[in-house]
Design brief:
Structural class: mainly beta
CATH topology of the largest domain: Immunoglobulin-like
Largest sheet: 6 strands, mixed
Strand content: 35-45%
Strand order of the largest sheet: 10-9-12-15-13-14
CATH architecture of the largest domain: Sandwich
Distance between the termini: 32 Å
Helix content: 10-25%
Number of strands: 16
Number of helices: 4
Oligomer: single chain
Length: 293
C-alpha cells in the first residue's frame, strides 16, 4: 500500500518534459496511473456494523467443540460488505481477557483507523469499545484482524473479511468468500496454548495439522451447470502457503491483494502466502453439474 501512495505523490513533484526519455520511474507511473484513486469519493451512505470480540466455543475443524476467540460468535468473523463510495462504521466491543485492536489489512484509510496499538490508537481494553469509521478508496477483497498479540489472537480465531464491492458489481452468479487456515491443536483437540515458541520463531511461523476452509474441514461448494462465480480467497494462516488446485475448471485470477490486475491470469500454480487474497473468476461447464472442494 505504501508503494501505491508513493506512485500518487511522484507526479506532483517530479513532472518532466514530455520529450525527455522515460525513466524507469516514469514508465512505472504511466503503467499504474489511475489504478490508485487519490482520495475516497463518499456517497453519503453509511453501513454500520456491530462487532464483538469474545471467547466462545464452536463446532469447527472436524465439527467437534473448539474453544476459540471470535468476532460475533463465529470463525471466520462476519464478512462485512460495503459498496465503493460507502462509509464503513464499525462499533467494536472488546470482551476478551486481553487488550486488542482491529487492523484493516490492505485498506488505504486514515491513520487513526488503522488499529496499530500505541502508534495510531490506544489498545481497546477489556470491557471498552471503539468506533472505526472510514470510506475505502479501492474496491476489492480485504480482511481485518487484531494488531495486539496478533500471533496469538489471530490463531485463536479472530479474523474476518471486508469486501468493498465495485460501484457497479459485475453480474456473477454468486460472490463467495473462502478463508483458508490451518490449526495447531494439542492432544485434547483444543488450540495449542503455546504461542511464539522458539521452534515457530526459528522456522517460518506457527504451522497446524488441521487445514480448514471457513473453519471446517468438510466445506463443499455445489454449483449448477453454467454458473460463473467470483471466489474470494484469503490465506489467514500464520506460516503455511496454499496452492489452490482448480483442476480442469476455467479459473482466472482477476485481482490480487485487493487490486484488479491489468488482465486476468490463470489461477493454476499461484501460491497464496499468509495474508494474501486473490479473486478468482470460476466458470463451470454447462453440460453437467459440478462441485468444487
Amino acid at each position: 500500500m505504501k508503494l501505491g501512495l508513493a506512485l500518487l505523490v511522484l507526479p506532483a513533484v517530479g513532472c518532466r518534459d514530455a520529450s525527455a526519455p522515460a525513466s524507469p520511474a516514469g514508465r512505472a507511473l504511466a503503467e499504474f496511473r489511475g489504478s490508485y484513486p487519490e482520495a475516497a469519493a463518499p456517497t453519503g451512505v453509511v453501513r454500520t456494523y456491530d462487532l464483538v470480540a469474545e471467547p466462545t466455543e464452536l463446532p469447527l475443524v472436524d465439527g467437534k467443540p473448539l474453544k476459540v476467540w471470535a468476532y460475533n460468535g463465529q470463525v471466520p468473523g462476519p464478512t462485512l460488505r460495503v459498496r465503493l463510495g460507502e462509509t464503513l462504521r464499525v462499533r467494536f466491543v472488546n470482551k476478551l481477557p486481553q487488550d486488542t485492536t482491529i487492523h484493516w489489512h490492505g485498506v488505504r484509510l486514515p491513520n487513526a483507523m488503522d488499529g496499530v496499538p500505541y502508534l495510531t490508537q490506544k489498545p481497546v481494553q477489556p470491557g471498552d469499545s471503539f468506533v472505526y469509521e472510514f470510506t475505502p478508496r479501492d474496491a476489492g477483497t480485504f480482511w481485518f484482524h487484531p494488531h495486539v498479540r496478533a500471533s496469538e489472537q489471530v490463531e485463536r480465531g479472530l479474523y474476518g473479511v471486508l469486501v468493498v464491492e465495485d460501484a457497479r458489481p459485475p453480474p456473477y452468479s454468486r460472490d463467495l468468500v473462502w478463508v483458508l487456515d490451518d490449526w495447531l491443536l494439542d492432544a485434547s483437540g483444543q488450540i495449542d496454548p503455546q504461542f511464539n515458541t522458539r521452534h515457530d520463531l526459528a522456522m517460518d511461523g506457527r504451522w497446524g495439522g488441521a487445514i480448514t476452509i471457513n473453519g471446517r474441514t468438510d466445506t463443499t461448494l455445489r454449483v449448477q451447470p453454467g454458473e460463473r462465480l467470483r471466489l474470494r480467497l484469503l490465506n489467514s494462516a500464520n506460516g503455511r502457503v496454499f496452492a489452490p488446485d482448480f483442476g480442469e475448471l476455467g479459473a482466472m485470477i482477476i485481482a490480487v491483494d485487493g487490486l484488479y490486475l491489468r488482465e486476468p491470469v490463470p489461477a493454476r500454480g499461484f501460491e497464496l502466502a499468509p495474508g494474501n487474497r486473490i479473486d478468482v473468476d470460476v466458470a463451470f461447464d454447462r453440460t453437467s453439474a459440478s462441485s468444487a472442494r
